[in-house]
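Sequence decides. Consider this:

===
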Amino acid sequence: MLAAHAHESYATGDMESAISGRRRAAKIWRELGEPLMEGDNLCRMMGSLISAGRDREAEEVSRAALEILEPLAPGPQLAFAYRTQAAQRMLQRDYAQALEWGEKAVAMAERFNDQETLVSAYNIFGCSLIQSDEERGCEYLEKSIALALDGGQQHLVFMAYANAGSACGEYYRFELADRYLAPGIAYTTERDYDHGRLYMMSLQALSHLYQGRWNAAADTALAVLDAPGRTSISHMATLVALGRLRTRRGDPGAMEALDKALELAEPTGSLQRIGPVRAARAEAAWLAGDAATTISEARAAYP
């Protein structure tokens, strides 16, 4: 019951309830002497922690889950734990380790016909390869999306589209990013999967910004900020888009947006979150002619 409630809480964007539910479920299973279910619930807490901007805690929880599950008999739960480690390494931009853990996840998921883990692992492969081998990266991303759509699980479809759009946008493959974000936003809009829709809209605002579509960037960013149910990571990305837009236009409120973005990003300890905020702040300082602050902001990007 707690696990099911946590799953639905995640789907509706209530990350705190999702985290609390998984934590309570893990505790109960531990007290009942069921390490398999304890480890599984800890693993599944990671996505909610990441969405809430609690990356350090996600790292601790995923490692704890792996320590519990590895001594047990292999199964889908261990495959998911390997996938969780791959995701953590990808988020920290350690792509070699992400691929290594992902290969372990795929091997075990195929052994136990675990489609959920396969969707995610293929997606991690694609995101990790997009910079060094775009063709192979896209092949894995497309494979992940097709498998997710075939399975019909909304959270997997959202994850597949969102990660693909995020990875491509981060490496300035904006045409590719838009190709993934547009159908992802349409899919989540049709199904009222609001926290997923808002996250992809925050990424779309950044894509609009970098391609010079400033009015579209502003409209998209403000729509996210005005919407209830946005997650911490959606809020961060939107504030970066808005802060950079205001900086480039010379509009007021640029540093107000970027100060709030930094407030949300720093506790994560994640390069994925901190890097874009510090880069935006460095740009603002550079355009203001403040070389010293430009350098200090750029150096602070690495937690």
In short: Residues 282 and 298 are 6 Å apart (CA to CA). The chain has 16 helices and no strands. The longest helix spans residues 134-151.
